Amino acid sequence: MKNIYTWAAQPAKRTLTVADLKAAKGKKKFIQVTANSHDEAYAAEKAGFDMIICQAKNVLKVREGSKHLFLTASLILNEYVTKEDIMRGAFKALEEGADAVMTPRSMEVVEMLTKEDVPVMGHLGLVPRKSTSLGGMRAIGKTSDEAFDLFQQFKRLENAGAFAAECEVIPENVMGEISKRTNIVTVSLGAGKDADVIYLFMEDICGDTENLPRHSKAYGNLLKLRNEIKIERVRALKAFKKDSMSGKFPGKKQSSNLDKMQFEEFLNKID
Predict the structure, then answer these.
(1) Are residues 159 and 205 in the same domain?
(2) Which of 107, 150, 104, 109 is nearest to 127 (CA)?
(3) Are residue 157 and residue 242 in the same domain, yes or no?
(4) Region 158-172: what's the mean pLDDT?
(5) Are 179 and 194 in contact (CB under 8 A)?
(6) Tell me: the pLDDT tens digits for 91-140?
(7) How far is the C-alpha of 176 from the C-alpha of 171, rounded, in Å?
(8) CATH number of the structural domain spanning residue 154
(9) Is 168 part of the annotated catalytic residue set?
(10) Max CA separation in the chain (angstroms)
(11) Catalytic pick from 158, 168, 203, 264?
């Protein structure tokens, strides 16, 4: 556990720092998962994960759930539009407990943040919100030319000062060779096992989605449990309605009465 000072000028402890991740590149694997609630962050820390990532607006409740894991705040494209939005959002997330920010924006934006010493994780490969420009949801780097262009993007991101990159849906062999040739900490989301960090969404790992992506694997079945809860909720409500309409509820256990003498006095007072 490392002692740090947060961006809110408060002492804290972290399992990892940016410096640790950079020093461990190519030597040690780390695991990351999304966490956007107190309970998800708590579960990730209890399960022994190294890193969590959340939407920037959720940093406070996520940090309450996990006091020590390395936390990256994602600056969602349509929520942080202008450069001023991005800068304010980044510093707010850091002040609330994030250790780094993630942005899929331009190299210019990355450089703007890193010039202020903000630890930045970029986003390369498939960026789903930009998928229409890529011809749909598909792997990026499927031809030699496209793979080389991707490699150049990594080098530009490195030159812009990013310490890491979320690498989404990239062929495993391409990712492996790029990771060897960049100082950036590579975070694989559907990019194979040769990156520095292996990453999946919480809902995919826990089986809490109907359409599991090809690159994911479910290790639980929360969706089944949620569906059972929905069914049980409706059953309970119907049972309550039925008993209420038939006069079975409330019964003696759920009601109380004045004793006979007090009740008669009450009637005399109101008649």
Answers:
(1) yes
(2) 104
(3) no
(4) 97
(5) yes
(6) 999 999 999 999 999 999 999 999 999 999 999 998 888 888 888 889 88
(7) 9
(8) 3.20.20.60
(9) yes
(10) 96
(11) 168
